[in-house]
């Protein structure tokens, strides 16, 4: 009886590990989105995660929410630096999410400042 319980437990743990590995390491999609960085903060009670939003339109009707893993230190510093500016975000989307990694399925891997297409006559600080 103990051998059967041990085998069942081992199979359950193996399936859980395979599921986590698949969700974490196999991206569903990868891409780039641009917009004005309107929010970036570290939130949570037990598990603190970096969460943010960009507005992809003038009216703010299209909001793209994203998460950033703690290991992406350069992206976190750039997001803090570019708050309120127009940015281009490179991201990977996962099949699912885990609450200790972030609130969304979109995880930022790279951040670049861009010129806003809405204010093309104005220059950003990187152009100066």
The whole-number mean of residue pLDDT values reads: 88
- Strand percentage: 35-45%
Order of adjacent strands in the largest pleated sheet: 3-2-1-4-5
The total beta strand count reads 5
Overall spatial form: elongated
Task: List low-confidence stretches.
Answer: none
Secondary structure class reads alpha+beta
Backbone CA Rg: 19 Å
The CATH architecture of the domain at 28-116 comes to: Beta Barrel
Report the CATH C-level class of the domain at 28-116: Mainly Beta
CATH topology of the domain at 28-116: OB fold (Dihydrolipoamide Acetyltransferase, E2P)
What pattern of helices and strands is seen along the backbone? HEEEHEE
CATH homology superfamily name of the domain at 28-116: Nucleic acid-binding proteins
Protein name: 6-phosphogluconate dehydrogenase
Organism: Tenacibaculum jejuense
Features:
5-stranded antiparallel sheet, 128 residues, 6-phosphogluconate dehydrogenase, elongated, OB fold (Dihydrolipoamide Acetyltransferase, E2P)
